[in-house]
Amino acid sequence: MIKKLVSFVFIGILFFGLAEAKEPQWIDESVDFSTWKRVILVELADTELEPLVEDIDDDLKPKSALTPEGESSADQKKPVIRKTLDLIGANEVWKQQVPKKLKVKKIEVISPLEMLAYLNQKAPMENWNELWGAADRESFFKKAAPFMENYADGILTGQMLRMSEGQIYIPPSTRTESYNQGGTWRNGTYSPRMMTRTVTTPGYYSPSWQASGRFTLMRLDGSTVWTYEKSSNKAQKGLFSSKKPSKFFEDFFNRALGESPIFLEKKAKGE
């Protein structure tokens, strides 16, 4: 009993600590982001992502939550392996969601293909496609910066640090609802006979997603003017819910971009 109490207290402290913790962020306050009108959007960095392993704590979950019927107690001791989400799928959401978000601030988004076409026309002496394919973004933008002075205001990049998909147990729940059990008619007026009943939703396993990423705004020469690390952990609730990982990433990227100085101009200007 004491062990369980200590465990619950620890979980409570951990939860409130995470709720209060601020996500890492840095802004160059000398930059006036309100003047930015055109931003080059770079695809998500190709990061090596590993599956997340989570241990199950028998003291904090009911046996029914841990051991589906037929499993041995030894099975419930095994860690849960969360599979890594598809980076390509996340990248597609990234490329679709950023233009939608920046459109609110009337900022035009430039794709890498559009940028390369411009550079090939502006400075044909360089093989820009080959330089971009080398994936050395820092060297690329340093070389390209002199030719893009009036082409764009900055660059937005993203890098996923962790993406995983697993499942959590949603315990049974009960609710009270009203229903009509045969009313009566009198003088042309219907009077329902309202009753109440308790409805129980059984426990079930629900998909859950975790992600963390680093998002960066840069000058055209590749120097950083804003960087932000965002983390999120969400479970799909509802026994018959059909929410997809793409919806999770839409919300994840929207929230991350909402913290950028493009949307928080006062922070960017140091006001």
Features of this protein?
271 residues; disordered C terminus; eight-stranded mixed β-sheet; 12 strands; two-stranded antiparallel ribbon; Double Stranded RNA Binding Domain; disordered N terminus; alpha+beta
Provide a descriptive summary of the structure in words.
This protein has 271 residues and is an alpha+beta fold. The protein has one domain (24-172, 203-269): Double Stranded RNA Binding Domain (2-Layer Sandwich), CATH 3.30.160. Helix content is 31%, strand content 31%. It is built from eight helices and twelve strands. It has helices at residues 2-20, 63-66, 87-103, 112-122, 128-133, 137-144, 245-258, 265-269; strands at residues 25-27, 38-41, 52-54, 80-84, 108-110, 154-170, 173-180, 184-186, 189-191, 194-201, 204-218, 224-235. Strands 1, 2, 3, 4, 5, 6, 11 and 12 form an eight-stranded mixed beta sheet that branches. Strands 7-10 form a two-stranded antiparallel ribbon. The chain has a two-stranded antiparallel sheet with strand order 8-9. A hairpin with a 5-residue loop joins strand 11 (204-218) and strand 12 (224-235). The longest helix is centred in the N-terminal third of the chain and has 19 residues, at 2-20. It is elongated, with a radius of gyration of 26 Å. The N and C termini lie far apart (52 Å). Residues 1-21, 51-81 and 266-271 have low confidence and may be disordered.
